[in-house]
Amino acid sequence: MRARHKPWAESYINEHPDVVIQEPERLKGRWAEEFGNGHPIHIEVGTGKGRFITGMAEANPDINYIGIEMFRDIIVTAVQRADEAGKPANLRLLNVNAERLEDIFASGEVGRVYLNFSDPWPKVRHAKRRLTHDNFLGRYERILPPEGEVHFKTDNRGLFEYSLMNVTDYGMRLVDVSLDLHADKPEWNIMTEYEEKFSSKGQPIYRLEAAFRNEGK
Amino acid sequence: MRARHKPWAESYINEHPDVVIQEPERLKGRWAEEFGNGHPIHIEVGTGKGRFITGMAEANPDINYIGIEMFRDIIVTAVQRADEAGKPANLRLLNVNAERLEDIFASGEVGRVYLNFSDPWPKVRHAKRRLTHDNFLGRYERILPPEGEVHFKTDNRGLFEYSLMNVTDYGMRLVDVSLDLHADKPEWNIMTEYEEKFSSKGQPIYRLEAAFRNEGK
């Protein structure tokens, strides 16, 4: 996702340390303390402008949400959104690269991983950067409990085709697949900015839920 | 697939024993003799009116094709088509139920299984009749060689979603997936009657190639 450079983003983020957690590594294994309860923790990797994660936090007060976005000029919009929503107590944002997931979360500390409209990285030589590449699946597996799930949606056909093949090759089980999410109109679906834009053009939104297998890895 | 009752179908089929093999069980393990060569044998389960299998036979003379269709009033059109195509030497048709596959083919005798626009059987209580149900996957596995492949295409979203989940649950590997086959315009694609009709309406055609795993089953 591209965003115009926002010179004020850094100071805005620094002024909201209760929303954007600084040095999140210090909370590894202690996120329940940060939230002040033992509710499940669901994370979104590549949270963008935060519409999904904020909407989820508002819709599901008994789940704690953490949105992770590496681009400061993008996450700043998510911070503004969280601010406008009155800083939901069950929402935090992290301005870090997803390669650091295992430094931030202990094994089994995360209950679910969401990926929404991730960068497709269409060139084969960039496949390693796709958030459904083995390298990332391995990271998710090591912070999720056995049989933990990844929920992924996208409008990008090539990325979705790749992801179907790759998550199953990795050994994950497809728990659910929809090749036209909006035709199914699930009530629980919280749309991202991107999703609303694309689905209004009649483009199908693809979605999968995949679970790691409990094979004692 | 529904067809008008054709009272002349039985006699027409009986007059073409070189195209529609009678009592195919007698050729189990001896299909190479029937074709007079050792070329690979690819079968289509639910061959309908035969456009795909006849087109494949004409396009690939070094592969032997067998189209299987249980409905007499439908396969008769495939027989007419094969007749008009000059009875390709590498094409045979069988008017049998796919539940009999193992009575007709020896283990490893079939090189590939094609499924095209199979009946979706949308009701859950009819799931066992879907050609990508475990019961049928087991039959294919037992007549294919290790790592043998099933190639499946359909316009039916529900059936394709089910099939993606079920073939991978069964333990098959997704070798290829396309969620809009005609957008990819592969030169090798031979369209069925049904496919041409639906794709001309702009409806996506879904396709997968899945391979059994060689795990000494």
Automatic annotation (TrEMBL), chains A, B:
S-adenosyl-L-methionine binds at residues 44, 69, 97, 119. It catalyses: guanosine(46) in tRNA + S-adenosyl-L-methionine = N(7)-methylguanosine(46) in tRNA + S-adenosyl-L-homocysteine. GO terms for molecular function: tRNA (guanine(46)-N7)-methyltransferase activity. The keyword S-adenosyl-L-methionine applies. Gene3D superfamilies: Vaccinia Virus protein VP39. Substrate binds at residues 123, 155, 192-195. Keywords: Methyltransferase, S-adenosyl-L-methionine, Transferase, tRNA processing. InterPro entries: SAM-dependent_MTases_sf, tRNA_(Gua-N-7)_MeTrfase_Trmb, tRNA_methyltr_TrmB_bact. The keyword Transferase applies. Its EC number is 2.1.1.33. Pathway: tRNA modification; N(7)-methylguanine-tRNA biosynthesis. It is an enzyme of class 2 (transferase). It holds the Pfam family Methyltransf_4. Catalyzes the formation of N(7)-methylguanine at position 46 (m7G46) in tRNA. Belongs to the class I-like SAM-binding methyltransferase superfamily. TrmB family. This is tRNA (guanine-N(7)-)-methyltransferase. The lineage of its organism: Bacteria, Bacillati, Bacillota, Bacilli, Bacillales.
